[in-house]
Amino acid sequence: MGPRAWALLFVLCGTIFLEGIDVAMLAVAIPSIRSDLGLPTDTAAWVMSAYVLGYAGFTLLGGRAADLLGRRRMFLTWLTVFLAFSGLGGFATEGWTLIVARFVTGVAAAFMTPAALSLITTSYAEGPQRNKALLIFAGTAAGGFSLGLVIGGLLTQLGWRWVFFAPVLLAGALLMAAVRLIPAQPTGTGKPRTGEQRSTEPRTGEPRDPGKGRPRRRTEGFDLLGAVTAAGAMLLAAYAVIRLEHGLDGWWLTATTAAAATALLVVFVAVERRTATPLVRLGIFREGSVVRADLGALLFVGAFFGFQFVLTLYLQELRGWSSLQTAIALVALGCDAILAPTLTPRLVTRFGHGRVILGGFVLAIVAYGLFLPVGMDWSYAAMFPTLIIAGTAFALAYGPLTIAATDGVAESEQGLASGLLNTFTQFGSAVGISAVTAVYGLASQGAAAGPDPDPEATLSAFRAALVVPVVMVTLGALLSSFGLGRRPEPTAQAAAPAAAVTGAAPGEAPEAAVVATPGLSALSGLPANRVPQDPS
After folding, report:
1. pLDDT digits 0-9 by tens, 71-84
2. Rg of the chain over CA atoms, in angstroms?
3. H or E element at residue 354
4. pTM of the predicted protein model
């Protein structure tokens, strides 16, 4: 890849790094925010949950919007919204302002992150280049979260408002760089260039722009009813998952919310089956590798965040470690930021992403299993093997899962595939944290009954909660063993745009290229004036 291609990848990875540190820093700062603003427990909890609700509720819509309305436009617009509402959180003086700011920031991330991921999958040639870019993207995401814990601890010492202002500075720098580095995407003239094969969209038969690998922009055909029902179903489902942490307390509200989410999901499917321009082509769920990768990501990310949540509680509540000490201890989990772009690409090239994913799940089983007998006075040296193995497992599994979730998908649906992956990962993190919280709450009821909780009973509750991540990664290992790594044959949909880009006839191997679409031809040094430019 040339310098400009690397610069673009740096900006897109900077976005997922921004999202990771934003979540991690707030998690560390919540106790200080609660104390300074005098927030009740339920309001402080909603400051965290509002972000998850906005992200999980709109990421599917965000992914498809990138395909239909323009990836560059969605990326720049919602990065700006992210910047503005992160700054609003820094000026908050009441709990409701923080909740609103976090909800809108989550919605912005739901549109921004799939757009960034789909820009990667449509900007770099499928194969080693795209795989390397995706693995760097995944490693940056995990590294952002791990480093965010430490940075959040340091900034909280200066004042919790810096936890909101620091992302504003980073987002501003990324926005200025993105405006220059992300080329405008062509809209197409309706006439193919000489030697170019024009493919059509499934169901509608409408011409697809080969330069972008997506339908020509068309606002009158946007599936508004599908967008509304999808967002409603995802919001209710996310709220139901968050409610799981209350266990049996208020179970009727959790059950009612889950039933309403299911009903809206049924309506959404009915709408998509009947509309001529569906928001989500339901046939994508017949792609076995895509579904397995998305479910695998849900289980793996859920187990990782669930384990990290229990570990944080163990260190701070039972062992009495400070937030900064805890954050520094968890840095070992960030080894994936180094291994993902260095070791994992070599393993994927040699063994295929399916075997590497399975290896990551197996390592995760070992890591979480080693921590099950945790004691009251374990030294950091006793915990370190679990932390380093868990970080290595993340490096092996998460990036290849991203590859599997987008591999072989038509370029016109890369935003949709990215949105689905982000939806599953967000629900995974919510499920993991809510499940371990519910198990811990049920197991610690006796320990918390008196004014002085029994430390041994509390430790027993932590051990019970740690079973949840072990079960999740075990299920993920079984799932990943069912052919996840089988590389799908290129479809006519996916092959036609690539052939158009390189000038190859159908059935011929296209020439090697750094960039997969003419709209990003500037990255490879090709003249950018061969196609009309969209001012978006």
Report:
1. 899 999 999 999 99
2. 23
3. helix 353-371
4. 0.74
